[in-house]
């Protein structure tokens, strides 16, 4: 599923001969970073109510990265740097990426060996 998301990112660029939509792929790299640095590499802290300075910072940065993934195509479309079709392909790519992350999170919760 992640590969399909990246393929849609590249198609949004290649079909419209404009490489600006690839800017939102940068956010796909930034989204898991708070989990890796502050959450110990797991996604379980995102659904817990436990707080603390670093845990709250990780939740905020993950949310900001997710909002940025949606906002970048909208901003680029508003600035007329990309077409409407490329924006919708970006949204589809983001939806597939979110589904991938949710499947990974669900699988990691059930992984009790």
UniProtKB/TrEMBL annotation:
<keyword id="KW-0472">Membrane</keyword>
<comment type="similarity">
    <text>Belongs to the OB-RGRP/VPS55 family.</text>
</comment>
<dbReference type="GO" id="GO:0032511">
    <property type="term" value="P:late endosome to vacuole transport via multivesicular body sorting pathway"/>
</dbReference>
<dbReference type="InterPro" id="IPR007262">
    <property type="entry name" value="Vps55/LEPROT"/>
</dbReference>
<dbReference type="Pfam" id="PF04133">
    <property type="entry name" value="Vps55"/>
</dbReference>
<dbReference type="GO" id="GO:0016020">
    <property type="term" value="C:membrane"/>
</dbReference>
<feature type="transmembrane region" description="Helical">
    <location>
        <begin position="27"/>
        <end position="46"/>
    </location>
</feature>
<keyword id="KW-1133">Transmembrane helix</keyword>
<keyword id="KW-0812">Transmembrane</keyword>
<dbReference type="GO" id="GO:0005768">
    <property type="term" value="C:endosome"/>
</dbReference>
<feature type="transmembrane region" description="Helical">
    <location>
        <begin position="58"/>
        <end position="76"/>
    </location>
</feature>
<feature type="transmembrane region" description="Helical">
    <location>
        <begin position="82"/>
        <end position="104"/>
    </location>
</feature>
<protein>
    <recommendedName>
        <fullName>Vacuolar protein sorting-associated protein 55 homolog</fullName>
    </recommendedName>
</protein>
């Amino acid at each position: 599923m992640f590969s399909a998301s990246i393929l849609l990112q590249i198609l949004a660029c290649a079909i419209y001969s404009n490489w600006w939509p690839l800017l939102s792929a940068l956010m796909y790299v930034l989204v898991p970073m708070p989990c890796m640095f502050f959450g110990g590499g797991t996604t379980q802290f995102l659904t817990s109510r436990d707080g603390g300075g670093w845990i709250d910072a990780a939740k905020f940065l993950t949310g900001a990265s997710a909002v940025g993934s949606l906002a970048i195509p909208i901003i680029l479309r508003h600035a007329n740097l990309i077409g409407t079709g490329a924006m919708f392909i970006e949204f589809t790519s983001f939806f597939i990426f979110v589904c991938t992350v949710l499947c990974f999170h669900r699988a990691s919760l059930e992984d009790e060996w």
